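RESIDUES AND SHAPES:
===
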Amino acid sequence: MNRLFFLQQALLKVIEQNQHIDRNNAPSLDWERIHMISCAKVGYLLAIKRGLDPILSACACTVHDFGRILSGSQKNHGQDGEIPVKEFLRETKLFSEEEIAMIAIAVKNHSKKGEIGSPIEELVKDADLIDYYSYGQTFKRQEQTDRFVRMAE
């Protein structure tokens, strides 16, 4: 087994521990479970195509909604997830400090679909949209649609 498996296993425990949180306007925890795994698969494949580390990329995709899982809120969940995801990743003992920093920045910025970031940030943004769309969801913001259209060209 690789660290992606162990990370997803640890995140499933965090999700279970947060069953009591009011989900406000956020998706259900069932969605979070499905999305974290399927987004990681999309990220893995994108990473191969883009010449990035597929396991590290899939791990970043796995935790990109960590802030929403903890808070139960869609609002600012990327930014709010940056510090808690660093702590979570350190606790897993699966990543170096450099990798933790890269993943945390991707978590923080993944909702900023109209901005350009590091290769791993861009991968997480794209995997998030592809996965979301693959479940028949429609985009709520123009920057999401614009990014998705650019990927398809």
